[in-house]
Amino acid sequence: xxxxxxxxxxxxxxxxxxxxxxxxxxxxxxxxxxxxxxxxxxxxxxxxxxxxxxxxxxxxxxxxxxxxxxxxxxxxxxxxxxxxxxxxxxxxxxxxxxxxxxxxxxxxxxxxxxxxxxxxxxxxxxxxxxxxxxxxxxxxxxxxxxxxxxxxxxxxxxxxxxxxxxxxxxxxxxxxxxxxxxxxxxxxxxxxxxxxxxxxxxxxxxxxxxxxxxxxxxxxxxxxxxxxxxxxxxxxxxxxxxxxxxxx
Amino acid sequence: xxxxxxxxxxxxxxxxxxxxxxxxxxxxxxxxxxxxxxxxxxxxxxxxxxxxxxxxxxxxxxxxxxxxxxxxxxxxxxxxxxxxxxxxxxxxxxxxxxxxxxxxxxxxxxxxxxxxxxxxxxxxxxxxxxxxxxxxxxxxxxxxxxxxxxxxxxxxxxxxxxxxxxxxxxxxxxxxxxxxxxxxxxxxxxxxxxxxxxxxxxxxxxxxxxxxxxxxxxxxxxxxxxxxxxxxxxxxxx
Lengths: 248, 238
Known about the structure:
heterodimer, A: 6-stranded mixed β-sheet, 4-stranded antiparallel β-sheet, 9 helices, B: mainly alpha, MetI-like fold, 10 helices, 77% helix, flat
């Protein structure tokens, strides 16, 4: 459509559970093709924030637009916009009762109304790309965590998303499997996918992110170019956070 | 004890026929009631798990009402009280023109009662599927109905197969209560054999063996089904 339009525009997002505010007036624009990493201490609201971007977590206040289209508050209307944004979860959330191929085809067939052949062809070509073509008949529980997460990425990509959201995609993985998932994400970033990634992997942030968002206590404390963020964070809280995680 | 055993009575006419008719009626009432219980119970369970406000109040009320009143009393209410409360024409139709009113009433009463128990199990099964699954389904653009149909219910049904087996066995055994409103099911037929022949031991032993045999067959069948639909790669629960 219009290159001037931000791919994701988030304005004044607020959310609370009873008296506890989990997000306070968070705003962020993500440009087409941009990779943004969100980091911050646990409980800072970063996971909730990323789940609000496609509306699977309801918010009390704020506006979200994807590719220039407002995310409606009505669930049925929101589903259509949501289908254009891929999401990858910490615990993979593959459907355990379906094979890998069925997992990747389900939403293609029932949301995008693709034919079964078309959906399977798309699934197979993506599975080949992540090196899992031979696993299409397997069930999720028969695969390693790294394989499951790569398939979860494929499942999201099969919908031809305009942007991808990642919620701590490597936090539930054994250390030796983190690399294979990050490699797929790096490749996506290089291909120009718009990405919002919640992660503690500062190596990934340095390698792939255009900007880093630092969150603490439900607030976006700092948004900075990646190199600047790591070299000279503007806020005291970010400095403290970085000193804690980078010493390990 | 002075008792003249005569197992042969069970194989004499007309008693063998009575037994057969009793078994057929027990199975017919149980299966028909189960169809009501499973479909209505699933529907109520789904709404109970997913809804809030008025809908949840309605499903909760149904569950509380039907689960907390004794089945025997419910059967009497449906048979003796409800027709009197309805508009006159409907009441007369129920009592006079409806074919086999006692059988229909037994099926409805048993079905509605068991639906409340099925609803609780189904709601628990849905709750046992992780919240992340419904998030993943919605994130991919599936509608709420599609998420239930393709993601949540297939997993919930697998979880509730063992308690559903118990529910079916309960409906099957509870069908004997239908004799109180005049349904000639297995227990009623054996009681009749007893009063005609005074061979109560034989008659009731026959009923016991038949109930147990059918129940064990159902249990075996359900175990086979459970194994068939179990999710590959997941350790089977014992």
